[in-house]
């Protein structure tokens, strides 16, 4: 069985869904409800702080793409600058620790 990371930097990962293998630890039977796509890699990490990050390979180009989201808690005032800074830090940790661009010869996207 694959071992998935349980943290990224200081950020604890509480759920993992891997649609390339059909694994989803949010489901009682650990099987993904969404369609499995063995031809392309797609893994979603849900963090304790509510951040959700999906990493996937492109189906048409030699690229790795990622999508992230983070929201404030319902009913609480939101410090948008603080949330943006937190999300930026999580993204930087994901890229550095999971993708390891220098080690893997990946070229970062243009700013």
Descriptive report:
With 111 residues, this protein is α+β, with helices and mostly antiparallel strands. 22% of the residues lie in helices and 27% in strands. It has 2 helices and 6 strands, in the order ββββββαα. It has helices at 80-99, 101-104; strands spanning 7-8, 11-18, 23-24, 42-47, 52-57, 64-69. Strands 1, 2, 3, 4, 5 and 6 form a 6-stranded antiparallel beta sheet that branches. A hairpin with a 6-residue loop joins strand 5 and strand 6. The model has no long low-confidence stretch (mean pLDDT 90).
- The count of β-strands is 6
Distance between the termini: 37 Å
Low-pLDDT stretches are: none
Approximate helicity band: 10-25%
Give me the strand/helix succession. Answer: EEEEEEHH
Large-scale geometry: globular
Protein traits:
globular; 2 helices
Summarize the topology.
Layout: E1 7-8, E2 11-18, E3 23-24, E4 42-47, E5 52-57, E6 64-69, H1 80-99, H2 101-104
Structure summarized in a few sentences:
With 111 residues, the protein is an alpha+beta fold. Helices cover 22% and strands 27% of the residues. It starts with 6 loop residues before the first strand and ends in a 7-residue tail after the last helix.
